[in-house]
Amino acid sequence: MIVRRAFTTCFNSNTLLPSPSQGTNTVTATTTITLLRLHSLSQPSTYPNPNHIPTHHTELQQLLNEKCKLGFDKLDDALVVFDKMLRMKPLPTVIHFTQLLAALVKTKHYSAAVSVFSKMCSCSIPVNIITYNTAINCCCHFKRVDCGFALLAAIFKRGFVPDVVTYTTLLRGLISQDKFLEAELMFKNLLKCNQIQPNAVIFNTIINGQCKTGNTSQAVMLLRYMENKGCMPDVVTYSTVIDGLSKDRLVDEALGLLAEMSDKSIQPSVVSYNSLIHGMCNLSRWDDIIQLLNDMDRHKISPDEHTYSILVDAHARDGKVKDAQYLIELMIQRGQNPNVVTYSALMDGYCLRGELNKALAVLRTMTSKGILPNTRTYSILINGYCKKMKVDTAIHLLEEMPLKGLTPTVETYSTILDGLFRTRRLDEAHKFYKKMLNKGVKLNVVTCGILLHGLCWNGLVGEAMSMFHKMESCGLVPDICIYNILINGLFRDNKVDKARNLYHNLLLKGLQPTVITYNIMIQGFCHEGLLEEAYKTLLEMEENNCLANGVTYNTLIRGCFKNKMYHGGCVLIDEMVAHGFKADASTASMLFDLLQLKEQDPALLALQKKFMP
DNA sequence: ATAGGGTTAG
């Protein structure tokens, strides 16, 4: 069904024309024409080029073997080889041509690959299902899965039979374009209609899609399903699910699957370990990380550049920049090459510590090694400068990006916007925001949060509220962070009723308040002297199974003291300590001041008696 | 002697 529907959409007038929404690739006019021509390639039309150049096929094979591994240095080289091949006598086999095509796809010369395939067809090279599969893979990587389906139609037209590889490639293409539901439906139909004998690879493709769309539990179920159907999960199946679980912070379940692998004598790979180590890093479970590294050593699996990158990133984010630096030296010693991701992670570590000069030094090191900074590298630096209030330098870096062929993301722009608001450069912030919109940057919830926070921070709560309503009407769904920002802003603007209102609205929308939401409310009520309501909020959060944290208690205790409710404050201190939290600096100094007071309040005297026996 | 699957960054 889904396949047929895809066919009809493919033949619909202009689905093949590049649409602005798919503009990640530069689709040239010639590419588009070539893509369009693919449809009519049911029958070969012309004969081979008459100007044959005699060349040995073995020589060609050697060249292709080499280029398949390393890729062509220049696109022109590949096209020259192709041209030569067309003029060879006898004509090289379709295998040679398919190898060339695969090499082009591997080196990401997708539009060139499309023209080569098209030319192969028009020169009556006897292309087969494998050639088609390679071409479909090319379309999918080129983010044109619709063209992939057009080729599937061509396969049927020429009387070929698509195989499991054809469908796997198409499924992966759909998934990579966020069409997982379509992929899943198509997969189910293929199974139901017995169109293919499913193997591990096609299952793995779907399992990966499930993990990427947040359905890890379903992925585990599909793994069990394939076992039951006698299609044994392999190392990729397990690694995919382990990665999904690790990203969901379910690392212990992931460890269970790793153990299951060795029970079934499926050798884990470095990828399986990398996913798990990454998961452990996100939870700062350092002991587990060390254990996993030892485990790898025992299994004679060496860490690769991914492993090191993950570890460098974890150390850098934890502030351990020295260790991160050392890890990079270690990986070089062991013959691994740090790449832009590795160096960017280290730079991020320095930026987080505010050590911008050291971050710049890393940038110099990497460029001296011929590693070019990417969008993320720039974003890290821009973020570093904004956090240091050096917004002008950040803007300068932003302007430099297009000159280096880099496109800032919505996150990059948002960082600058945040910087302008924080430094109270309101006019510029407004102008910058307009410029962002003019550039066609698509706003997301995080950007809106920055905008709303910036407005509130600068006392423009009214503007923030109207922005919030506009945001809702634009189809952006406000999350709990947005509500937190606004409720906080309203309280700071003494708009208690409106804050209360907004809180009830978020409950009505089915959103779950977090500990931050409650803390904001408690602080707001305390500030207004509404201690009763603040305390009721504490009870409410307990009812809603939201645990109070140190901030909650400290806020409430300070509120009590400020309102001369010494007894209540004292009871809460006991409760806080019982829950394992401590007074923070500001509560402690407040308490210290109170104890010096010479007021004859009975509750205060009791308090003094308790803390100064 | 040709094709498809898993890992690194707010």
Automatic annotation (TrEMBL):
Give the domain of life: Eukaryota
Keyword annotations from UniProtKB, A to Z: Repeat
Q: Does the keyword Repeat apply?
A: yes
Q: PPR repeats located where?
A: 128-162, 163-198, 199-233, 234-268, 269-303, 304-338, 339-373, 374-408, 409-443, 444-478, 479-513, 514-548, 549-583
InterPro entries registered for this protein in UniProt: PPR_rpt, TPR-like_helical_dom_sf
Pfam families tied to this protein: PPR (PF01535), PPR_2 (PF13041)
Tell whether Metal-binding is among the UniProt keywords. no
Q: Which family does it belong to?
A: Belongs to the PPR family. P subfamily.
Q: Which PANTHER family match?
A: PENTATRICOPEPTIDE REPEAT-CONTAINING PROTEIN 3, MITOCHONDRIAL (PTHR47941)
Specify the protein name: Pentacotripeptide-repeat region of PRORP domain-containing protein
